[in-house]
């Protein structure tokens, strides 16, 4: 990996329950400051790839049995998920995972739990998150479980921002949301990328929106990368149009 690469996944294989081979040699790189899309149908292996990177497969009886993963030039497979968060790589899980009984603000503050730079810096970042997500500022005292799906997705991304990340692994941010909200969330992701310098690896089934915001994309099928390229190139590719964009 060069200095321009923040994340590199090198030919990883993942097996669940010692027998179910799900990733069959996946490689990808994310340039520093980039937005990269990981595309593919339901079950292709997108979530497994993200969890392999953040070391969250253990809870699902999954193992990386081959290959290597480097974040900021450092091999990360031996690190705990918390160590990885401290180094600046945060996963936002599919399904949002806000604490439903806590307020939006309390949820955001839980994102700062690994930080040691004091309450003034945390308060400043809370304001930064509210500036990007004005809806969260409006709803700061609301119990997260009673806010909308879009607000919970924003809360999950905002909470990740509270850890001071250099990279966010974002799993299906569009899931279950109306098109206009999807657009609103991707616009904010773009702002976080451009202004805060956060790199994103974005798993999405919504190929068309992902390719509009990412600069590069990988398409997974059956646990293998079957195609990759510049986002513009992919969105003009005939097979991608037919199978993933629903136009012939
Ligand atoms: P989705 O959009 O549903 O998240 P995905 O592309 O992220 O799809 P994965 O969730 O990574 O796909 O799943 C890839 C394959 O691994 C699927 O065939 C799935 O059934 C299988 N799988 C996922 N989790 C487990 C598990 N804990 N044990 C066994 N098999 C699993």
UniProtKB/TrEMBL annotation:
SMART domains: AAA
Origin organism lineage: Bacteria, Pseudomonadati, Pseudomonadota, Alphaproteobacteria, Hyphomicrobiales
Residue span(s) of domain ABC transporter: 7-247
A single GO molecular function term of this UniProt record: ATP hydrolysis activity
Protein name, entry field: Amino acid/amide ABC transporter ATP-binding protein 2, HAAT family
Keywords, sorted A to Z: Amino-acid transport, ATP-binding, Nucleotide-binding, Transport
Coiled-coil regions listed in the entry: none
Keyword ATP-binding: yes
Pfam families: ABC_tran (PF00005)
Keyword Transport on entry: yes
InterPro entries found in the cross-reference section: AAA+_ATPase, ABC_transporter-like_ATP-bd, BCAA_Transport_ATP-bd_LivF, P-loop_NTPase
Family under the similarity heading: Belongs to the ABC transporter superfamily.
One GO term of the biological process aspect: L-amino acid transport
């Amino acid at each position: 990996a060069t200095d321009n690469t923040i994340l590199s996944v090198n030919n990883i294989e993942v097996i669940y329950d010692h027998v179910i081979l799900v990733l069959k040699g996946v490689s990808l790189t994310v340039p520093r400051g980039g937005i990269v899309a990981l595309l593919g149908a339901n079950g292709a292996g997108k979530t497994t790839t993200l969890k392999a990177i953040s070391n969250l497969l253990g809870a699902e009886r999954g193992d990386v049995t081959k290959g290597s993963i480097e974040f900021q030039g450092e091999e990360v497979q031996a690190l705990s998920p918390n160590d990885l968060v401290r180094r600046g790589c945060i996963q936002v899980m599919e399904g949002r995972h806000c604490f439903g009984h806590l307020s939006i603000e309390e949820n955001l503050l839980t994102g700062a739990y690994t930080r040691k730079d004091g309450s003034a810096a945390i308060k400043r970042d809370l304001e930064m998150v509210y500036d990007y997500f004005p809806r969260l500022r409006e709803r700061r005292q609301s119990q997260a479980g009673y806010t909308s799906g879009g607000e919970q997705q924003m809360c999950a991304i905002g909470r990740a921002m509270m850890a001071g990340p250099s990279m966010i692994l974002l799993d299906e941010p569009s899931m279950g949301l109306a098109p206009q909200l999807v657009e609103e969330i991707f616009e904010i992701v773009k702002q976080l990328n451009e202004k805060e310098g956060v790199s994103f690896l974005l798993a999405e089934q919504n190929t068309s929106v992902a390719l509009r915001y990412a600069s590069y994309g990988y398409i997974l099928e059956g646990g293998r990368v079957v195609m990759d390229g510049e986002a513009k190139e992919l969105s003009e590719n005939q097979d991608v149009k037919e199978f993933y964009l629903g136009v012939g």
